[in-house]
């Protein structure tokens, strides 16, 4: 799994950090998402997919190995 | 025939369809929308799109390839006009009947209009991408903007108007901006923020009538006197878009009335701004008009269509960006009596505060404190 962030879209809601704290964090000053792990391990995949679905700005892009979204 | 028919192709409808696929739903899904555009996001309209920082295409909720990969039959420019719940069919404009197994109602809101201002050249509402393009074009040649309504949308439009260099007046009969969402104390701070940025904030003031010259609005008569305008935006709230359901037999009461599973009737669900459901943890009927609810409720409805039979019990959340302030609110502040600052200082416009009612924290607010407010969410008494 490959995770990408469309940073200008981020609205700093922090829902991704709640859903997958091992993979996402927020910057201190403006709350914008920080990607901790662009290739998260298998046991994080479900949390990452949940984070992508929950993101109110559609700023998290998840691609499975091979490039398909 | 589609196994699931979603009426409304905005955030809530798309989230439901996408979540069904992510949960492994293999049946057919049809998603119909009354606008010509691919599903797009509304929060940027009053901010980045109105200011011109973003083009319309940047509001797309999913890239075309990602949308195609969901294997959804997306039908645009198609307006639902009625539903026959017995035959399980939705009728769309033109008379075509669309049979369904499960129906998801996601038709959102229609902006409330003010009779005397409606349809007058120079007056606008802001709900759709087409609305914002029209407004942006007129603001480019304008000097004076009046915003009727100091709710979240009205405040954002006022801030964007100042960013565009316009003279801006906000008119609202309520005592403070956004009082319904944030209460009197934070509302007063917002009034101060807008005034500090050069907006004339006329709270406690009624818009009485438009003054028209050569068929165009030139002034607004308010209870505080005449205010000049090139452009007037009416941002006085919205009503659930349920006209098409009037003869359906479904219960409508400021939204589509649902049980705790967001179910309006057998095989029929409602999601997003249009849905009023029984919030089990709050033990009352709730309808939320915010972007996060559109997504979270879409997930919940997808789960329930697939048999989860789970109540939907979210902690409400919204954010707004005005000038250099990003405000985030978790919970429900409407019944709060006290605001207690937890960290930072309102004077520096960077703080986290708890809103309390009867000794319980009912909500938390952050200004420019995204991390802090996310952590403070744990304090809300009825949280998950």
Report on the structure:
The complex is a heterodimer of chains A (69) and B (384). Chain A is of the alpha+beta class. Chain A contains 2 helices and 4 strands. In chain A, the strands form 2 sheets. In chain A, strands 1-4 form a two-stranded antiparallel ribbon. In chain A, strands 2-3 form a two-stranded antiparallel sheet. The longest helix of chain A is centred in the last third of the chain and has 10 residues, at 45-54. With 384 residues, chain B is an alpha/beta fold. Chain B is built from 8 helices and 26 strands. In chain B, helix 1 (11-22) packs parallel to helix 7. Chain B is globular, with a radius of gyration of 21 Å. The two termini of chain B are 38 Å apart. In chain B, 49% of the residues are buried. Chain A binds chain B through residues 11-15, 17-18, 26, 28, 30-32, 49, 53-58, 68-69, and chain B through 15, 18-19, 22, 41, 43, 61-63, 65-66, 69, 291-292, 294-296, 299, 317, 319, 321, 326, 328, 368-371, 373-374.
Instruction: Tell me the total number of β-strands of chain B.
Output: 26
Strand composition percent of chain A: 15-25%
Classify the helix fraction of chain A into a percent range. Answer: 10-25%
From the helix content, strand content and strand pairing of chain B, which structural class follows?
Answer: alpha/beta
Rounded to an integer in angstroms, the radius of gyration calculated over CA atoms of chain B is 21 Å
Describe the largest sheet of chain A. 2 strands, antiparallel
How many helices of chain A does DSSP assign?
Answer: 2
Major sheet characteristics of chain B: 8 strands, mixed
Q: How are the strands of the largest sheet of chain A arranged? A: 1-4
Number of strands of chain A: 4
Helix/strand-derived class of chain A?
alpha+beta
């Amino acid at each position: 799994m490959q995770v990408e962030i469309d940073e200008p879209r981020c609205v700093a809601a922090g829902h991704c950090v709640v859903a997958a704290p091992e993979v996402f964090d927020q910057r201190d000053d403006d709350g914008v998402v920080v990607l901790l792990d662009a290739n998260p391990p298998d046991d994080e995949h479900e949390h990452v997919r949940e984070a992508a679905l929950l993101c109110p700005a559609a700023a998290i892009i998840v691609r499975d190995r091979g490039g398909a979204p | 025939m589609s196994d699931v028919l979603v009426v409304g192709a905005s955030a809530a409808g798309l989230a439901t369809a996408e979540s069904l696929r992510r949960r492994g739903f293999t049946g057919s899904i049809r998603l119909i929308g009354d606008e010509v555009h691919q599903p797009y996001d509304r929060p940027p309209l009053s901010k980045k799109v109105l200011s011109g920082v973003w083009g319309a295409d940047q509001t797309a909720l999913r890239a075309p390839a990602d949308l195609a990969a969901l294997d959804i039959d997306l039908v645009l420019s198609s307006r639902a006009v009625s539903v026959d719940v017995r035959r399980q069919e939705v009728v769309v404009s033109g008379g075509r009947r669309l049979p369904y197994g499960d129906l998801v109602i996601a038709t959102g809101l229609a902006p409330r209009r003010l009779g005397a201002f409606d349809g007058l050249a120079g007056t606008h509402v802001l709900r759709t991408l087409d609305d914002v393009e029209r407004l942006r074009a007129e603001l480019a040649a304008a000097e004076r903007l009046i915003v009727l309504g100091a709710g979240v949308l009205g405040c954002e439009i006022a801030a964007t108007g100042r960013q565009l260099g316009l003279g801006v007046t906000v008119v609202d009969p309520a005592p403070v901006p956004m009082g319904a969402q944030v209460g009197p104390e934070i509302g007063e701070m917002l009034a101060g923020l807008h005034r500090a940025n050069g907006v004339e904030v006329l709270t406690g003031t009624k818009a009485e009538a438009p003054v028209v010259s050569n068929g165009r609005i030139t002034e607004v008569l308010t209870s505080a006197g005449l205010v000049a305008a090139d452009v007037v935006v009416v941002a006085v709230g919205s009503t659930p878009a349920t006209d098409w359901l009037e003869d359906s037999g479904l219960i409508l009461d400021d939204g589509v009335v649902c049980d705790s599973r967001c179910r309006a009737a057998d095989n029929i669900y409602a999601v997003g701004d249009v849905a009023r459901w029984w919030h089990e943890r709050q033990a009352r009927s709730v309808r939320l008009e915010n972007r996060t609810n559109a997504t979270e409720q879409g997930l919940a409805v997808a789960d329930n269509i697939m048999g989860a039979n789970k109540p939907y019990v979210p902690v409400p959340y919204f954010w707004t960006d005005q000038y250099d302030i990003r405000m985030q609110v978790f919970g429900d502040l409407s019944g709060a009596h006290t605001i207690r600052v937890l960290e930072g200082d309102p004077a520096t416009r960077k703080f986290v505060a708890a809103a309390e009612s009867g000794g319980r924290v009912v909500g938390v607010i952050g200004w420019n404190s995204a991390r802090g407010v996310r952590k403070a969410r744990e304090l809300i008494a009825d949280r998950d």
